[in-house]
């Protein structure tokens, strides 16, 4: 358990048998399909799963000095991301951003050294999609470049395809 302000947040790390240095990170507890897909991949290839346990919710809610804050876990890993998510979902304060910074550093410290780190997500229709990063999207300023293929659904989720992970990639360093 980690104390984010006065709120307890659980981060679970599970090691799967196998000779890989693959780590999958899962930060949105409501994305259960993503977690299941991650577990399936790791059962097959081995590696680690680092999961943010958040009562099956997407957004982190925490209290600091009696004030409530909300943040998208995707955006806590950079200073600009912390500022943007606090402003968008609640209110910005330097001390709340500092709490998120400490939490992000702790979360990263739980990720084992790996050759491959995948952040696993899934989406639903009418919710978050790659279109959110287009020039008219709400997250346009969060990216430097974007490529959208027209052959796939913007919301589709597929089990990760890892054909380029050869036995050489799958060995520990």
Number of domains: 2
Helix content: 10-25%
Give the amount of beta strand, in percent. 15-25%
Computed Rg? 17 Å
CA-based shape: globular
- Runs with pLDDT <50, length 5+? 154-173
Largest sheet, spatial ordering of strands: 1-2-4-3-7
Order of helices and strands: EEEHEEEHHE
* Total DSSP helices: 3
Whole-Å distance between the termini? 30 Å
Structural class category: alpha/beta
Describe the main β-sheet briefly: 5 strands, mixed
Oligomeric grouping of the chains: single chain
Per DSSP E runs of 2 or more residues, the count of β-strands stands at 7
**What value does the average pLDDT take?**
81
Task: Describe what you observe in this structure.
The protein has 173 residues and is α/β, with parallel strands linked by helices. The chain folds into two domains: 2-122, no CATH class; 125-156, no CATH class. It is 24% helix and 23% strand. The chain has three helices and seven strands; from the N terminus they run βββαβββααβ. It has helices spanning 32-45, 79-89, 94-109, and strands at residues 2-4, 7-16, 22-26, 47-53, 60-64, 67-71, 116-119. The strands form two sheets. The chain has a five-stranded mixed beta sheet, with helices on both faces. A two-stranded antiparallel ribbon has the order 5-6. Helix 2 (79-89) crosses helix 3 (94-109). The chain is globular. It starts with a strand and ends in a 54-residue tail after the last strand. 24% of the residues are buried. Mean pLDDT is 81; it is low at 154-173.
């Amino acid at each position: 358990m980690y104390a984010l302000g006065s709120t307890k947040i659980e981060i679970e790390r599970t090691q799967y048998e196998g000779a890989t240095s693959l780590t999958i990170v899962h930060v949105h507890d409501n994305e259960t399909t993503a977690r299941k897909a991650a577990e399936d991949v790791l059962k097959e290839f081995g590696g680690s799963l680092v999961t943010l346990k958040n009562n099956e919710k997407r957004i982190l809610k925490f209290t600091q000095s009696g004030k409530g804050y909300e943040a998208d876990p995707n955006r806590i890993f950079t200073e600009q991301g912390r500022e943007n998510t606090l402003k968008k979902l609640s209110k910005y304060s330097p001390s709340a951003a500092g709490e998120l910074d400490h939490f992000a550093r702790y979360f990263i410290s739980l990720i084992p050294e790996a050759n491959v780190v995948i952040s696993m997500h899934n989406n639903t229709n009418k919710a978050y999609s790659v279109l959110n990063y287009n020039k008219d999207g709400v997250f346009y300023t969060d990216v430097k470049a974007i490529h959208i293929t027209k052959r796939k659904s913007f919301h589709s989720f597929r089990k990760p395809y890892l054909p380029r992970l050869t036995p050489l990639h799958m060995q520990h360093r």
